Amino acid sequence: MEDEGITVRKAEHLRLAIEEDVEVPLGGGGAFDAVRLVYQALPEIDLDAIDPSVELFGKRLAFPLMIGSMTGGTEEAGVINRRLAEAAARCGVGMFLGSQRVMIERPETVATFAVRDVAPEIPLVANIGAVQLNYGVTPAHIRGIAEQVGADAVVFHLNAAQEAVQDGGDTRFAGLAQRLADATAELGASGLPCGVKEVGSGFSIDAVRRLAGMQLAFIESAGRGGTSWTLIEGRRAGSAGGRSLGALFADWGVPSVTSLLACVAHGGGIPVIASGGLRSGLDAARAIAAGASVTAMALPLLRAAARSVDAVVAELEAFKRALVTAMFLVGAPDIAALRRAPIRIDHRARPEVWEGRVDDPRDGMGRRS
Ligand SMILES: Cc1cc2nc3c(=O)[nH]c(=O)nc-3n(C[C@H](O)[C@H](O)[C@H](O)COP(=O)(O)O)c2cc1C
User: What is the CATH topology of the domain spanning 3-19+46-340?
Assistant: First the structure.
């Protein structure tokens, strides 16, 4: 057990994410720019009548956003989690907790994840690294950490790129797909819905196909385009070799829109939560029109939570207003209509094209060749 190591690591993650530039360099564009919504000049609806609410785990979200998985395990993380949860409750959205592995090693850290007193009703999701199933964590442990925080579901994160760059990372991934399938089946059968997410390096078609056979309540696409965990772990590395490895792989992974489309097309109908560089309600509208059921955003809400609950509420309200504005401008009175809204997708973002499985009929400038 490396109790102290884990809390020092969490504190360093927070400091780096709050203070430094830790996002994948995209050259000025946004992670969801590859999806274009088509403007409807005659929307034939009243903006004030638009209903952006959706259902998740039998609960109502005022609009389709979950605060992304981030933190827990240290005193500062506890303060952040409570601010995020309070803002989520005020605005009617849900929240993913950060990895709760530390709770298994140091049960007293439960207080840093416990938010039900400030957010009794919100959809709340527990979190654990899937690879921990290869390091002795069992479904019973996971049920325990979910129950202790009153979670509605649990999400397993896949983070091979992060672990590979991290000094001493947990890289024994052999046999994990079967173990994950077994664990999610067992937990699901016991009444705890399970999801799987990446942490910002996304899913290829083959990876999604492996998940499609599992009994999952959702997949969170978490593509490349926002927070970069290879970059963060590289910055934390103690050696010059570790730092250059992190820099080399800083933009590793499947882009956000590509990962989202792979999950939607190849996930066997499992609901998809879009994330990875999702930065506004406009991005959320694009993601939902491209097939997502709900969206998630992490880094900007962490930075707001480092300031105050009110700062998080302001971020969430701006997000909702942009989403409703986009819905108005495509003539979508509700989320079901937004999902049917016409879109244009940059051909190069399609997973088959991105993976080179079909020829791109356009040249690099987007023109027909
Ligand atoms: C400070 C911080 C800590 C994170 N910790 C976790 C974690 O414990 N478990 C997890 O599944 N994802 C974790 N993530 C990843 C996010 O949930 C998300 O997938 C990723 O940051 C991409 O979203 P973003 O670009 O909106 O930040 C963390 C992100 C941040 C910024």
Answer: TIM Barrel (3.20.20)
- Supply the pLDDT for residue 360: 63
Q: Which of 199, 232, 319 to mutate to test the pocket of ligand 1 (most atoms within 8 A of CB)?
A: 199
* Residue spans per domain, the chain: 3-19+46-340
> pLDDT tier at 260 (50, 70, 90 boundaries)?
very high
Structure tokens at 201: 């390096």
pLDDT digits over 283-328, tens only? 999 999 999 999 999 999 999 999 999 999 999 999 999 999 999 9
Residue whose entry in the numeric block shows the structure tokens 């397993």 = 156
Distance 143 CA to ligand 1 centre (A): 22
Query: How much is the pLDDT for 1?
Result: 41
Task: Give the phi and the psi of residue 125 in degrees, each rounded to 5.
Answer: -125, 125
CA of 227 to the centre of ligand 1 (A): 7
